[in-house]
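Each letter names a residue; the fold follows as tokens. Both lines appear below:
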Amino acid sequence: MSTQTRIPEQVDAPARAGWRGWAGLAVLMLPALLVSVDNTVLSFALPQIALDLGPTSAEQLWIIDAYPLVLAALLVTMGMLGDRFGRRRMLLVGATGFALVSVLAAFAPTAGVLIGARALLGVFGAMLMPSTLSLLRTVFPDRDQRRLAVAVWATAFSAGAALGPIVGGFLLEHFAWGSVFLMAVPVLIPLLVLAPILLPESRDPNPGRIDPISILLSLATMVPIVYGIKELAVAGFTPLVGALFAAGLLLGLIFVRRQLRLPVPMLDMRLFRRGTFTGALLVNLLSVVALVGYIFFVAQHLQLVVGLTPMEAGWALVPGLSAMIVAGLVVVPIARRVPARILIPAALVFSVAGYVAIAFGGESVAAVVASFVVLGVGIGMAETVSNELILTTAPPEKAGAASAVSETAYELGAVLGTAILGGIITALYRANLVLPDGLPPAAAGAARETLAGAVNAADEIGGDLGAQLVAAASHAFDSGVVVTALIGAGLVVLAGVIAAASLGESRPKS
């Protein structure tokens, strides 16, 4: 009897990946690196884009948010299609389209064209990310190897965020802002060459039929909710915002009911009944909101208030992003021994401390560097553990759908980080801005829109009046940092509470 119980364990023991698997991991890191570079570089390129294309404050937010909005709306659909038609195939199609549209974005003549290109990048980005994470499950069936692989893969996000400001800063100092989008091409060429060689194809053996109604419902749920959040951040609560939220929630309810009735649903709602899966998703969401919101206002502070060049501002954030990478790797052996419900809240204490430090520790470059190092340690640990839990708790055949939900939370967090924290600091900037007397109407209007508009107007005016405008705008912007930072700290605290309450069923070892 005891012999019979041991034999299945020996037969079913997951195989360990060899050199081919680790080489494949390097390929899978390229899309994550690209997405992270793209998001970070855009934050640093935004002042130059604002000066060149002259977008309104709403257009400025859309330039940032068009990509993650479309990507978040399509991730579940693309994850399902990857499960059905092949995850490697979706990866290659997405990489090809992303490279081509990046060229279009680089030469966009207007803010509207740039927003449209960013939206198209979201379409092809939605093909990249679920395939990338779900293929990790196929390449690394052994959980110990997979935990390390997820940590290494996650460092690509942090490495991209660290590399983006440096490479992007160099490009922005020597070339037009469009050069930051052209970086995608040399990153994706190795993927297109090596992925067919190193990565196995994988798919759901029983995918079921494609349900166009579910696809439309998933899109119709995401778009009005995220758009409503953006409008709320820019214009406050209006009847339009209420209508958007109501429409999104109603369509989301219809989507859920349809999935529960379908014999083979587009998205298996039973995944959300697992406390570990849902809790890890919420930790991801809130952590990304806090991180992206922090980078959004700190990048502007360093360039437009302190006066650093884009490259100098990038170097200022490198220590924190490096700390995020190191923390994500260091946490791997700890995660084998400490339960996630204890480990993640403990890690997020660092992130709370980082936000509190930027709120009350001053706004000098040294204070920004120190606060971001502490914040990065917490985010790096929490993201590694939560991502591995999401992959582990989902059935292998639904890896694409589970990865799509995880990436949806990540991208929705990016949208919310800009919309909520970016919207709050924009609103506080406008409320606290006291314009000096004698400004031309056009300059006053530009200054009220954005901090970049105020700096640009001051450069055109020059003299003492220009200096007064810069001082007033800088004071108004930084006056919102304390409130915004404390709200970010509150979001991280909420993530820690959710982890402690929902991850009790997870164990350090499989």
